[in-house]
Amino acid sequence: MTAVVDIRNLDISFATDGDPVVAVRNVSLTVNKGEVLAIVGESGSGKSVTAKAILGLLPETATESGVVLLGENDIVQLSKKQLRAVRGVDVAMVFQEPSTSLNPVYTVGWQIAEGLRAHGNLSRKEARAKAIDILERVGIPDATHRVDYYPHQFSGGQKQRVVIAMALVLEPELIVADEPTTALDVTVQAEILDLLRRCRDEFGAAIVLITHNMGVVADLADRVAVMYNGEIVEQADVRTLFADPREPYTQKLLAAVPKLGTAVEATRARAASRPVHEGRPVVSANNLVIEYAGRLGRKGFRAVDGVTFDIHAGEVLGLVGESGSGKTTIGRAIAGLTKVSGGSLTVLGQEMLEVRERQFRKLRSDIGFVFQDPASSFNPLLTIAECVAEPLIVHGRAGDAASARKRVDELLEAVQLPHAFGDRYPHELSGGQRQRASLARSLALEPTLLIADEPTSALDVSVQARVLELFSELQKEFGFAALFISHDLAVVDLLADRIAVLYQGKLVEEGTGAEVLVAPKHPYTQRLLASLPVPDPIEQAERREALRAIRNEE
Amino acid sequence: MTTLTPSRTRTFLRGLPVIRQLRQSVGLQRGMLIVGLVLVGVFILTAIFAPLIAPYGFAQLRDVHGYFGAQDPPGPKHLLGTTVGGYDVLSRVIWGAQTALLAIIIAVVLSIFLGVTLGVVSGYIGGWLDRVLVVIADAVYAFPTLLLAIVAAIVISGGSSNLFGGVFASGISITAVFIPQYFRVIRAEAVRIKSEAFVESAKVVGTPVIRIMFRHVFRNATRSLPLIFTLNASESIFTLAALGFLGFGIEPSSAAEWGYDLNKSISDVTSGIWWTSIFPGTAIVLVVLGITLVGESLNDLSDPRLRTRRRAAGVTALAAVSVQGGGALDDEIANADELEGRA
């Protein structure tokens, strides 16, 4: 086996306003021809920086030492001009966000041809012919026409296909894919993973796959390197790693990944212990319609279309769907952030259709909201204690932040944060800690209803596991009803008593975890489940076949 | 808990706009910032202590030995000579700093409050109010400053004026032009912050609109204020000087003003009398340069992409320094001693 890239003792550090930060420490890796090496790690583990070093794409503030041998060139030593000759021909990159890695003002054909013409003496016509050819090969239908389309005319998954086509067109030996499916929905992710597998099998390219998703690793990788704190903790064959992880960190990482179907027993126990719902539900949606107004002369966009569901007191409803399915819109409508356009939505006895803010304000103290992004959901100029005290002050339960401090301390304790954290500013906390504080803030008024909009999707797996655990403990303790919104079926399965699946604004299936996840009835739910990669290479290979069968049926 | 207080004040000091930037700057950017700060510092000190520094009053024509005499060259009695009107140039330049500082303060105070308040309200509330305000701001923006200043000067004091008339004329015209600038900058920030999750979270809690606007939006929107502030300051000095130069300035008997002195020295230039124009002119250039340098550097430093940083080369050396950083002043000294003791 010949090595395509050979990294030896790579060290990378970054200059910052404070002291230099060491991002990568003594990393040695090799990638062989036609092999997929996955680099796995949590945020800040140095996986992306390592990948960028292979292309010499590090920013000017970085200092690197060591050897990155790509064929015969040492990337660390190359000049800018030499690097340009290497990039594209020997190594290409696929970025995370397909909508920002394509230039919106040029056609995709032009952008593919640009790379071709930069590295060879192709005529305009030849380059175009090649662009059409490569677009066909990555599975863009009607490529002869669509080569002249602009990026916005493609869907997210298709854009990622175009980006992969750009990477493949010069037939590089190595493709570096930095979280290539993170921005995509599960069903699209499965298709892109298939395409990347074809890159290896048909084009013979080696792939360095950077990801935090263990399911993706199990699906695609041949070999895995686990990174932690800038160092490689473990390197092994994919089956060996999943079956028999040696390092404690790897074991912990694998254990933290939520798996489908493990929570069925727990859900049943919870359902049994809960009293039968009496009286009216906390939230009741009946044929709910939410539309966003269109521009002048255009029809509005119907984000939620005739959805009916109930949330009873003390119950957790999991709302699952892909991007654009309307799940966040429903959550925002319940919290009074988005107007209801039709049907009926009753929140805590208040009809939300045509509601006035004045009528709704007194109910707000009974609703808590946890936002997706812990980085932006706190006012950066207030301390955590002041932020948590805000709801108390607004609703007149405390005069100012100082007099609310006792209650704030209790709340911080409830979410397992030390009291001293109250004096810190939001940026001084990690993502997981901030999300705990966010929980504390939403629980400050002891709400009867909590809306959690993707509360863990910005967090690393190990942190996510702890936050989810905390969430279910708090739910047990405070007994609030909750709407838990997520795109991750496995996460919802862990927490929810009932699961509702949304697809293009419509509710396609609703039921307990056992009903929806084990025996899905609607074809969309079936496809969604089959697309979800499981963190087990052997099982995932079987599921892949099952998914192919479902797709062929359609 | 008691140890917390000094570190708090210390971090507060470090967090102050200019001091924080001074700490994080390196190389050429630091040089620019320091030169600017020194020039501005000298200017402000001169303005404050003008009565102590200046050898004579700004309107003084004679002392116990009799009249000064007109257009005397620089000499031991008059270090920078005297003007055509018989005033001491050095004294006029020093007293002029006071007038200039006053012009800056009035222009800034008048425009900053209105501009910022309108910006926050317009940006946060949006809708038709926002559209109307933006159109008005754009219209005002197109108005020439100097013309407005001349009109204001005439309205306030009939053309030739006393200290407050002149300063207010420049202040008002600057205000008219700068309110839209503050307005637009703050409004843009408010629009951005409005969609941040922490504002939505305040809404979910049921926070009243006024509280959201001032506790959450306003405090986060003021990042770029120091930058417009410096622009505003140098512009107001220019306008005051231009007013004086055009003859709408302050009478020499009510205050010293650089633009007026320049105007009176036009005829001197052709007859080889250089000291009456060079010194007030230099004063204007230096003050504007200093303020602009500060503004420019603050602008560069506030943008992480423009900010130059120390290279990460000497990792070990810097890492050792980091041990003592971040604590209270006392801790820092103790740590430093410890380090030396160990070494």
Description:
The complex is a heterodimer of chains A (554) and B (343). Chain A is an alpha/beta fold and 554 residues long. Chain A is 38% helix and 23% strand. Among the domains of chain A are: 100-171, no CATH class; 264-531, P-loop containing nucleotide triphosphate hydrolases (Rossmann fold, 3-Layer(aba) Sandwich), CATH 3.40.50.300. In chain A, α7 (186-203) links the parallel β7 and β8 (206-211). In chain A, α4 crosses α6. Chain B has 343 residues and is mostly helical. Chain B has 2 domains: 49-296, MetI-like fold (Orthogonal Bundle); 314-343, no CATH class. Chain B has helices spanning 4-15, 17-24, 27-48, 50-53, 89-125, 127-141, 145-157, 163-194, 197-205, 209-221, 225-245, 258-264, 266-270, 275-302, 315-322, 329-342, and strands at residues 62-63, 66-67. Chain B has a two-stranded antiparallel ribbon. In chain B, a hairpin with a 2-residue loop joins β1 and β2 (66-67). The model of chain B is unreliable at 1-6 and 312-343 (pLDDT under 50). Chain A binds chain B through residues 13-20, 22, 61-63, 335-337, 361, 364-365, 367-369, 371-373, 376-382, 387, 390-391, 394-395, 423, 438, 441, 445, and chain B through 4, 24, 196-198, 200-208, 211, 215-216, 219-220, 307, 309-313, 315, 318-319, 321-322, 325.
Report a brief summary of the structure.
Chain A is of the alpha/beta class and 554 residues long. Chain A is built from 21 helices and 20 strands. Chain A is 38% helix and 23% strand.
